[in-house]
Amino acid sequence: MEGPSLPVRRIAFLVVLLLVAASLPLTMLVNFQVGGYSLALAAIVGGTARAVLPDYLCLGLLVRSRQQDVLTMFVLGVAIALLAWKVPGG
User: Fold this and answer.
1) CA 62 – CA 16 distance, rounded (Å)
2) Band of the pLDDT at 1, cuts 50, 70, 90?
3) How far is CA 10 from CA 40, 43, 60, 74, 89, in A?
4) Please, what is the angle between helix 32-52 and helix 11-29, to 10°?
5) In terms of C-beta density within 10 A (0-12 exposed, 13-18 middle, 19 or more buried), how is residue 58 classed?
6) pLDDT tens digit string along 35-81?
7) Which of 18, 42, 43, 53 is at a distance of 20 to 30 A from 26, taking alpha carbons?
8) Which residues are CB-neighbours of 85 under 8 A, at least 6 positions away?
């Protein structure tokens, strides 16, 4: 058995990519805060996937060491969420 197919191995990346892609229409059609929260969710989902899934299921999210990837994505996700929350008037 050679393992899961390439689309299956990139499922975490595809989920993160869909959340990032959804953030722009949400920003334009709803408001800035909703789009910002969607972008923050994408970073946090990516960090969580990188933390709990094996490397072969995180193709596209592998950049540096696991610890550095997770820390970077969580910090960026929280920072984006806080900035979206603090935007005056939404």
Assistant:
1) 13
2) very low
3) 20, 16, 7, 20, 37
4) 170
5) buried
6) 999 999 999 999 999 999 998 888 888 889 999 999 999 999 999 99
7) 53
8) 33, 36
Q: Which of 50, 43, 53, 35 is nearest to 78 (CA)?
A: 43
| Both structure tokens of 49 | 């996937």
Domain spans of the chain? 6-85
At 48, list the tokens: 């969580």
- Tell me how far apart the alpha carbons of residues 18 and 5 are, in angstroms, rounded to a whole number: 20
Sign of the dihedral through C-alpha 41, 47, 83, 25: negative
Beta-carbon contacts of residue 30 (< 8 Å; ≥ 6 apart)? none
